[in-house]
Predict the 3D structure of the following.
Amino acid sequence: MSLVLDVARHLCVGWDLIRDIEHRHLKEKFSRPRLKEVQRIAIDEIAVRKGHKYLTLVLDLDRGNVLFVGNGRKSEALTPFWTRLKTAGAQIKAVAIDMSPAYIKAVTENLPNAMLGFDRFHLVKLFNDKLSELRRQLYREASGLLEKNVLKGTRWLLLKNQDNLNDNHGESARLQEALALNKPLATAYYLKE
């Protein structure tokens, strides 16, 4: 029995040593990253649980590191990050964000000289929403039955990627007919593309 206790005692000491080494390695590798060299960042939020609990993340776009995690998704969530950034003397050149008014406000107030960029997903969604709204308006204002028939059923054609149009169903031809009939719709469509 004493041999079993000796082995167990050595294993416990071994596990503690391994845990300590692992803890030091993780702390060294993932502790607060140096901000001085950071030039391009991205700010976004993630949902962590049901019930609308969010965290704000700041990422270094050049290195892929998480620089900061804040509670919530308001501009105040970034206050500790701005303090650290100013202390470090970092010169941020560009910031990528979604179109959240809170993040736009926070970035323009704290990094007035940084170039602000919006992510593609939100821009395409905004264009698609406006394009659908314009198509509905044009359909309501259409005077003739021909115009209404051409515009009817084109919503998905306008939103689809051109490469995904099915020529077997005449989708490309129907889309071109709708665009040729209405210049404002064609302008909005080509801006989206």
